[in-house]
Amino acid sequence: SSSSSSSQINNVSNENKTHALNLLNSLLKSMIVVGLLFVCLGQHFSFLILDILYTSKWSSTDAPQLLSIYCVYILFMAVNGVTEAFVHASASSSQLNRLNLWLIVFSFIHLILIVILVDSNGSSGLIIANCINMSLRIISSIFFIYIYFDRKISIVLNFLPSYKTLIAFLISGIVCWTSSRSFERGTMKHRLIHISIGITCFLVICFTLLYLENLIFIEILYFY
Q1: Residue pair 83/142 in contact by the 8 Å Cβ criterion
Q2: What's the whole-model pTM score?
Q3: Distance (Å, rounded) from C-alpha 42 to C-alpha 45?
Q4: How many C-alpha atoms does 11 have within 13 Å on its Cβ side?
């Protein structure tokens, strides 16, 4: 009968949505984790990396600051890549046309921000403008995802790692920031202490992820 056929179609549609949500949840969480590694750990070793690889020729310039800000930009790029990919895979033609109009608006805002921020902050202003542009694009994609999954805010919030994982990242970031301020420009002994602290924080985060977020890796392996 037509009612049973309609019910079957709805079940298939719901199954597809559930599958899409699980995959999106795993990918977004994993990208956020990778991005937070750069934000909380990577940026506090930008000076040391440049000084070791390219000596003071580069570490004495504004390159460490640019690399540090770029580590933050990586988080925005990672999240935006996943959210926009989902939107383009799931949206209808009319929805994509509306989203593209918003992207044009964001591009104009981006150009204005580049002019303002580069003038006031130099080269780092360009990366900051890119971060803001990515933020706007992420917000528009998340809004689509929120509507696509029946306007349930809990689904959107579930894209974030657990609060314990976020606390581990926050504490590690503070520890590495303090270490960089104290040790990275000192003697070789001081630098080794800074590197040791960074490795310790990285291991703590890895154990936290294995304990609290292991489902991310299991689900990704399952899907692929």
Answers
A1: yes
A2: 0.86
A3: 6
A4: 6
pLDDT at residue 177 greater than cutoff 90: yes
| CA 57 distance to own-chain centroid | 31
Residue 150 Rama label (left phi>0; alpha psi -120 to 50; beta): left
Mean pLDDT lowest among 48-57, 84-93, 128-137: 48-57
97-125 confidence digits (pLDDT tens): 888 899 999 999 999 999 999 998 888 99
Please tell me the distance from the alpha carbon of residue 193 to that of residue 182, in angstroms, as a whole number.
10
The secondary structure of 22-84 as a DSSP string is HHHHHHHHHHHHHHHHHHHTGGGGHHHHHHHHHTHHHHTTTHHHHHHHHHHHHHHHHHHHHHH
Encoded tokens for 87: 């939107």
- Which one, of 89, 91, 92, 105, lies nearest residue 137 by Cα? 105
Predicted pLDDT at 35: 95
